[in-house]
Specification:
The chain is mostly helical and 475 residues long. 45% of the residues lie in helices and 2% in strands. It contains 19 helices and two strands. Strands 1-2 form a two-stranded antiparallel sheet. Helix 16 packs antiparallel against helix 19 and helix 17 packs antiparallel against helix 18. The chain starts with a helix and ends with a helix.
Length: 475
Amino acid sequence: MGRLIAQLLGFAGLIGLSTALSSALASPRLLLSHPTENPIAPNPEASLVGAASCSASGCHNANGASGTKGSEYSTWIGADPHAQAFAVLGTTRSKKMLANYKGLDLVQADPQRDPLCLSCHVHPDPEIKKKAYPDRFSVVDGVGCEACHGGAAQWVSTHYQASWKELSNPEKSKLGFVDTKDLGTRAETCVRCHVGEKGMDVNHDLLAAGHPRLRFELSAYQANYSGRHWRILDEKARQPDYEWTSWLVGQLATTEAALDLLSHRASHPDAPWPELSEYNCASCHHRIGGDFGQSPSAGKLRFGTWNDIRPNPQSLPLAFFGGILGDDERKGSESLKKLMEREPQNRDQIRPLAQMLSQKWTNRFEKTKSFAIPVPDFGQIREWILAQEKANQDGTCSPSWDKDTQSYLLLRASIQNVKNRDGKVSPALDKAVSDLGEELGQAFPKGKESIWTSPEKYQANSVRKRFKAIQEALP
């Protein structure tokens, strides 16, 4: 399983993490917090003061154990790959990537000055927002504190005072502070770079130039985050269903971001179209002498197999999202899939539908502060596996490494939930889920950096047997 997660994750070539995914579903119900008062960009006037403003030994640079309070800066600069995000832009690989993307020679290509590269490897808008203390902010810091916590010019000198704790979230937000302790807000912060948005788009042209494919899944990223500057125990104290919430809110935030990005891509006539990064890679990239891993998707456009926007048995269990999505979202998502998989793709038809769905998802989140989500039990998991495999057999759904890996991450979370609650699960079930993870991990060629390779050894029929073994082992 660790090898699969290492292949799944990647931050512009920096993150290749091998720790096992740790997920837990600790209670029968979940309260998903999604505060509307604290949006991602709360104050457009918020200025950047730079990570150095947090580096005093009496502030966040105590150099204590990783994740301990007061050692956030020392943990970040010593262990967090985000701190090296600017440095990686200076490598020969990055220069070749930009040269390929823009048709430049290697001498002309300078990713460390290119706005597209800097928008994710430093900050979405570093040049405009460094108003207050321009001498302190430096792109060399990479993805620093303010990329996640918000421009700090208006709160850096007060956030450690007792009066700060008395402020409400809306009051803090007005000062530019982003409350990443809330998992909904955190997920929205992550997806800006790890899924993309306007001006921060890893499109197919950039992938063809050599950029790693974006395969973001929040719970796996958090479980394997090597430079975490906070304690998981504190997370669980705030949110007992921490791992389950991470998985669920990650799916919701990723869907919202993917729809918004598609809407942007379809709205700009100068952008490449069709945007091939929206599709499963195996639609085009597969062995000439046969199918890409014997997958039925080869040669056929399969839309959104990683960021699947459709809450149905072929993707994710509809029961998990009950009470969140309305009929308009369900029907619209299915219509969008059909339009995206029709050849040729009619941009004028896709654009208004993508915009409508994107706005509906955004409005629903803005209007809903919390909603109860049933945590799935093994009976629901069994029904979901049966529905998924039936859809594969009757042709209404095509298996792929993407879908099977997303399913694996959910199943792994379910197994961990029972372990946390009961202290154990049956050895047969534990082994069946682990075997699925190993099978998916072995789909990548050995001896190569997996974030730049495809799961070309994926065997759909063999993976189906793994799912059947899990189904049979469920109590």
